[in-house]
Amino acid sequence: MQLSLTWLPGCLRDAGLEVLEHPGWQTRGHGDMGKVQGVLCHHTCGPLHGDLPDIGVLVDGRPDLGGPLCNLGLGRSGQVYMIAAGKGWHAGAGTWQGVTDGNSHFIGIEAENTGETSGPRAEAWPDVQMQAYMRVCAAIIDHIGAGVAMVAGHKEYARPLGRKDDPSFDMVMFRAGVARLIDAKPVAARVPQKASGAGVVTIDGLNVRSNASAASTIVGVLFKGDKVDVAGEVMNGSTKWLRVAGGYVSAGFVDVAAS
């Protein structure tokens, strides 16, 4: 039986990630996933060297817990390993944003890292791996239409609190990085545009945003009477946005002349 996460490798490749498909991933899992609502981040606690030396454990499990133990593996090189299209035993007891069955509703990512911050096995996170980790999470969250709050660390989800300590990095900073990646992806690239001509701003203090969304970063401000060249239009839900120099503005506050 083919399981439901068959879209995942293509989604990650579209985000520019290198994905290696472990044989049999399409039918591997403890049954199928439920509705995917987010991502659960882990580290492996494995060997100090190698890209993903724990892949055998992630696929086949341990004596006390059968595999697969996650959906994705992430090597130190930033390579992504597709492990299971179905449910993996990675979450255990816990809760995050109202989700209490993490195995069914969170895509589990096991990133190779000892997880230790002192002593002979202490390991910093390589920049290439951390950037890939954020890009994986951003691609998944963007695909399922969830907010960055649905990127959780196992240490945040697990109950009782303190039961888990992975991943070893700051999840607040990590989510901020994921948010920046999503914010930087132009909505206009994903929907049809049409040329609109020129326009005049009708209010003072019109925010220019990095993306066609009121939640995206403000990159500039326009004032009543300012003239703008409109390169195109894009719909985000029921709201129309205009592509102008430097970003996007809400169409409701620009008088667009006929081209």
Describe the structure concisely for a colleague.
This protein is an alpha/beta fold and 259 residues long. The chain has helices at residues 8-14, 55-60, 102-105, 127-144, 154-157, 171-184; strands at residues 19-21, 38-43, 61-62, 65-66, 72-74, 80-82, 106-111, 151-153, 197-201, 206-209, 218-222, 227-230, 232-236, 239-244, 247-250, 254-256.
What does this structure look like?
This protein is of the alpha/beta class and 259 residues long. Helix content is 20%, strand content 25%. The chain has six helices and 16 strands. The protein has a six-stranded mixed beta sheet. Helix 4 (127-144) crosses helix 6. The longest helix has 18 residues, at 127-144. The protein starts with 7 loop residues before the first helix and ends with a strand.
Element layout with pairings:
Blueprint: H1 8-14, E1 19-21, E2 38-43, H2 55-60, E3 61-62, E4 65-66, E5 72-74, E6 80-82, H3 102-105, E7 106-111, H4 127-144, E8 151-153, H5 154-157, H6 171-184, E9 197-201, E10 206-209, E11 218-222, E12 227-230, E13 232-236, E14 239-244, E15 247-250, E16 254-256
Parallel strand pairs: 1-6, 2-7, 2-8, 5-7
Antiparallel strand pairs: 3-4, 5-6, 9-12, 9-16, 10-11, 13-14, 14-15
Helix pairs in contact: 1-4, 4-6
